[in-house]
Amino acid sequence: MPRYLVCMTGASGAVYGIRLLRALADPFGPCPGAELHFVATEWARRVILEETGRPAPGHIEALGAGRVEVHEPEDLASPLSSGSFRMDACVVIPCSMGTVGAIAAGVTSNLVQRAGAVALKEGWPLVLVPRESPLSLVSLRALAALKEAGATILPASPGFYARPSSIEELVDQIVARVLDSLGLAMPGAKRWADGGEE
What we know:
The protein is an alpha/beta fold and 198 residues long. It has helices at residues 14-25, 42-52, 56-61, 97-105, 111-122, 137-149, 167-181, and strands at residues 3-8, 35-40, 68-71, 89-95, 126-130, 152-153.
């Protein structure tokens, strides 16, 4: 059974992480039956509440009882801290520049940072979805270092070629790209090739 970790940090764009979890938890989605793990930093929880009007536990409960295993961000004794707890991928969405800098520098002061470091050292797919603009030279260098180390850098920069008519369509476009990077296909994803649905 595939095992995925979704992490959320304090960058704006909580809806991206929530939508990715919903896609992965969907029994008719791209990976039915996947084992899902979730970590949200303290600031991520505050942003989730601020941007959606609903606390993080409410979003997790909406996915179905026991569908997602939640880990506390300060619990460095979590199985997620060890490479022996095998993962098929780790996605940090949205990914703050603080998290980018920490992982690039090898700092592991919380579980998100540690999980990112584990993914890199084990060679698992690590997808970082930054949502910040403009980017400083410090951030650009950190992102470049992470790319060189094997991470996928996937900025939350949706395109407009599919003529989106809602925020949800823009969000889905980024989530579809994240799933693509994991080798999964999001049903109904709109692509450049045909301008329509798959």
